[in-house]
Each structure stands twice: as structure tokens, then as C-alpha cells.
Design a protein that fits this description.
39% helix, Chitinase A, domain 3, 5-stranded mixed β-sheet, 158 residues
Length: 158
């Protein structure tokens, strides 16, 4: 059975845009750079040629990776989920019970996670600990600094 990757519609759109850019812009640029570098003669000492080949290898690998992820993406529509508990696609406001600090996280697929944007992966320990919890629930999660307790303040699917 093929493993599916849960993803938001926005996350899938970003992967498709990256794939299109690699195929239609980056790949032709690197092919031209390789051709130009070849014209300079001896390839064994041609740094531009080697750099372009390395870039080409990265681009081709990323294209294969993106195509694989896109075909295995399972777009989850949060509006069809039970919004009384924490599930994929939820935006959750938590309070750290030790510091009283509030944090807001949106639960997304692994490829969409970006802690700087408060996008947390469905497979992250914090996320795993809060799945299926409801507003007001307190839960614990093991962190590098030890066991932490959080309380769920709100769950939203905006």
C-alpha cells in the first residue's frame, strides 16, 4: 500500500509551484550553464562545469522528490473534520502552564511545517500529544528540557 502524506490544499499548491519552477526555469538554466562551461575546454579543471553539474543533480533529485510527494499527497479539508477537537488543519492556541505563555500553531503536513510561521508538523511530538484533545484539556509532552504541560485555549479551522 502506498503511504499518503496529509497536506493542506495550500501546501500542495506550494509543492506544485516549486516543481513547475524547477522544470520550467531552473532546469533549462542549469542545462545552459553546463553547455556554456563545456565550451571552455578542459572539463577536469573547470569549476563552473562541476558546479553546474552539482546543481543539475540537486534539481533532478528535487524534481523526483516533489513528483513523488505530489502523487502521494492526501489533501485534507479541515471544514469536513470534527472541529470540537484538535485534528489536522486546526489552528490551536496553547498555554504553557509553567510559564503562562500562549502560543498559536497550525497543524500541517510534514512538508509544510515551518516553526517560524507557527506551522507545526502532524508528526511533531507536541502535535502528537494534542491530537484529539478538546478546549480546556491539559496534556503533557516530553521535550528536550523535560516534561511540559500545556492547556488548549481554542481550536479553530480558519
Amino acid at each position: 500500500m502506498i503511504e499518503k502524506f496529509p497536506m493542506t490544499a495550500e501546501g500542495l499548491k506550494k509543492l506544485r509551484e516549486e516543481l513547475e519552477n524547477l522544470k520550467n526555469s531552473e532546469r533549462p538554466k542549469v542545462i545552459k550553464a553546463i553547455a556554456d562551461a563545456r565550451e571552455h575546454g578542459d572539463l577536469s579543471e573547470n569549476a563552473e562545469y562541476h558546479a553546474a553539474r552539482e546543481r543539475q543533480s540537486f534539481i533532478e533529485g528535487r524534481i523526483v522528490e516533489l513528483e513523488n510527494k505530489i502523487t502521494r499527497a492526501e489533501v485534507i479539508d479541515p471544514s469536513k473534520l470534527d472541529n470540537s477537537k484538535v485534528t489536522f488543519g486546526a489552528t490551536v492556541v496553547l498555554t504553557d502552564l509553567e510559564t503562562d505563555k500562549k502560543n498559536t500553531y497550525k497543524i500541517v503536513g510534514a512538508d509544510e511545517a515551518d516553526i517560524e510561521q507557527n506551522l507545526i508538523s502532524i508528526s511533531a511530538p507536541l502535535c502528537k500529544a494534542m491530537i484529539n484533545k478538546k478546549v480546556g484539556d491539559v496534556f503533557e509532552v516530553q521535550t528536550p528540557k523535560g516534561l511540559k504541560e500545556y492547556q488548549i485555549n481554542s481550536i479553530d479551522f480558519k
